[in-house]
Specification:
By secondary structure, the chain is α+β, with helices and mostly antiparallel strands. The chain is built from four helices and eight strands. Helices cover 32% and strands 22% of the residues.
Length: 186
């Protein structure tokens, strides 16, 4: 019998969003995904003595690197400028382990506080991550997030009264995540 909570187990966009929700604030971004020059970035990037083509990342405080044992280590450019990680370790440099690339929609729905920069056409998340989008999109995501938070609170308060798989807000968010993934591969 198929469990209702596993109905999207085969959709990586949904799984990655769940990872974003569960691991946040363990997020790193490329320079493209950050606001201005990240802290600690006033010097040249560290010298990378390997053949690693993964771009340099920042965690909101300093430069970080994907660990050589990660499947994302030799990736030639990230599909999106953000990734989540399970663990940060420092040896010769600060490395991220168990990384997954996450989409902007995942970050907008399950990340930190959102600030809409109407004139600049950008969205700032937790005062250090940046997305370029029309202000209208940012405002819609802020409202969708408030609605999702209310639905989740209701699920927690009255789990026996709620049907997660039939909730229109949840279905809409899943559809949005699947559409984002599909449009990226088109």
């Amino acid at each position: 019998m198929k469990q209702p909570f596993n109905m999207h187990a085969m959709h990586s966009a949904v799984i990655l969003s769940v990872l974003c929700a569960g691991l946040y604030p363990n997020v790193a971004a490329t320079l493209e995904g950050t606001v201005g020059v990240p802290l600690g970035r006033n010097k040249a990037p560290s010298n990378n003595n390997s053949t690693n083509d993964c771009p340099i990342l920042f965690d909101g405080r300093s430069e970080v690197h994907v660990h050589p044992s990660s499947m994302n280590y030799n990736i030639n450019g990230l599909r999106y400028p953000f990734l989540v990680f399970l663990e940060k370790v420092e040896t010769s440099k600060v490395f991220l382990r168990d990384t997954s690339i996450i989409s902007p929609y995942s970050l907008l729905l399950f990340g930190g506080s959102i600030s809409v920069q109407h004139q600049m056409g950008s969205i700032i998340i937790d005062n250090w991550m940046k997305l370029t989008a029309p202000a209208q999109i940012a405002v819609l995501f802020k409202q969708l997030r408030l609605t999702l938070d209310a639905v989740l609170k209701d699920f927690i308060r009255k789990p026996e009264m709620m049907s997660f798989s039939n909730n229109e807000v949840v279905k809409s968010i899943v559809h949005l995540l699947l559409e984002e993934a599909a449009s990226h591969f088109s």
